[in-house]
Design goal:
By secondary structure, the protein is of the alpha/beta class. The chain has 14 helices and twelve strands. A six-stranded parallel sheet has the order 2-1-3-4-5-11, with helices on both faces. Strands 7-6-8-9-10-12 form a six-stranded mixed sheet, with helices on both faces. Helix 1 (4-11) crosses helix 3, helix 2 packs across helix 4 (49-56) and helix 8 (160-173) runs parallel beside helix 10 (194-210). It holds the Pfam family LacI.
Length: 332
């Protein structure tokens, strides 16, 4: 392994001079600096993380603020965590995962610790108490999601309103005249979480635009709750022939309950999901779905945050267009 001493010998300088060049803690002549940098390249020397941090005045760590709350689907959230971690590593940054639900105070604590260069914030509510703090912090931030008032922020998200609309349009195009949204757990709506709010709004607006009867149904993810919800839905609304499911944890139970009730998918009830592709593809039958692009969103968020750290202008809001993939659950 190449060391600072090896670089010093190759450049004909003292090891301390190499250290000063790498950290920028002392002024070094241009000629000496160029000689040291040439030796670094020639020998393939890689400064350790501490030296890089000193040189850039950065911690080389990004905080991913992901409070663990009721109604959240952890397997899907972990896809976001992995995507952010992989993207950060490509920028030679590590990720500090912050899961405590401490609201605005938690953001101030993390930003004030000098352990992180910037913050990525998830599970964004429509009227999120963390938003005013993010505008005040001396650390740059990017939200995966966006609040009702996004002024002064940098946000990236799937266009969930359009995702809900695309599901309704697909079912309406197939001739379905009555549809239902099997939504997230009630706690998610009670928090007014942005993605759930916008999906429901897009679903309802599209149903009105297409002249399709619609109903919405917050649903807990356990099998018994799904059984009661779906059975009650079909009893109260026997004309429903299309379901849009925006609740990844409930998906297997939704399909199983329909089967138990003697409702064939898609002959009797068509099902469209808003979920990661791999989950939709594993179902029987495979489900038509709008993908939740966790990897793409994670990479976009990290790229935006790195741009802000480099003081490069960034767009205030990036909405990824929804992609609907037709599978067997809506075939006619």
């Amino acid at each position: 392994m190449v060391t600072i001493a090896d670089v010093a010998r190759h450049a004909g300088v003292a090891p301390s001079t190499v250290s000063y060049v790498l950290t920028g803690r002392r002024s070094i002549s241009s000629a000496t600096k160029a000689r040291v940098e040439a030796s670094v390249r020639a020998l393939g020397y890689h400064p350790h993380a501490g030296a890089r941090s000193l040189a850039s005045n950065r911690a080389n760590v990004l905080a991913l603020v992901l409070p663990v709350r009721e109604g959240m689907n952890m397997p899907v959230l972990m896809q976001f965590v992995v995507a952010v971690a992989n993207a950060a590593r490509r920028h030679e940054h590590d990720v500090l995962l912050v899961t405590a639900d401490q609201g605005a105070a938690g953001l101030r604590r993390v930003a004030g610790s000098a352990q992180v260069d910037g913050l990525l914030v998830m599970d964004v509510e429509m009227h999120d108490e963390r938003v005013p703090v993010l505008r005040e912090l001396d650390r740059p931030s990017v939200l995966i999601g966006f609040p009702a008032d996004a002024a002064g922020l940098t946000c990236v998200d799937l266009d969930f309103a359009e995702a809900g609309a695309r599901c309704v349009d697909h079912l309406a195009d197939l001739g379905h005249a009555s549809v239902a949204l099997v939504g997230a757990p009630r706690a998610v709506y009670q928090r007014d979480t942005g993605f759930a709010h916008r999906t429901m709004a897009g679903f309802s607006a599209a149903a009105m635009r297409r002249g399709v009867a619609s109903t919405t149904l917050p649903t807990e993810p356990d099998h018994e709750s799904v059984r009661v919800a779906i059975t009650g839905l079909l009893d109260r609304h026997p004309a429903v022939t299309g379901l849009v499911v925006h609740n990844e944890a409930a998906l297997p139970s939704v399909v199983e309950v329909l089967r138990t009730l003697g409702r064939k998918v898609p002959d009797d009830v068509a099902v469209v999901a808003i979920c990661p592709d791999d989950l939709a593809e594993r179902m029987t039958p495979p489900l038509t779905s709008v993908a939740v692009p966790a990897e793409q969103l994670g990479h976009h968020a990290v790229a935006l945050l790195m741009a802000k750290l480099d003081r490069t202008p960034t767009p205030p809001l990036t909405l990824l267009p929804p992609r609907l993939t037709e599978r067997a659950s809506t075939a006619r």
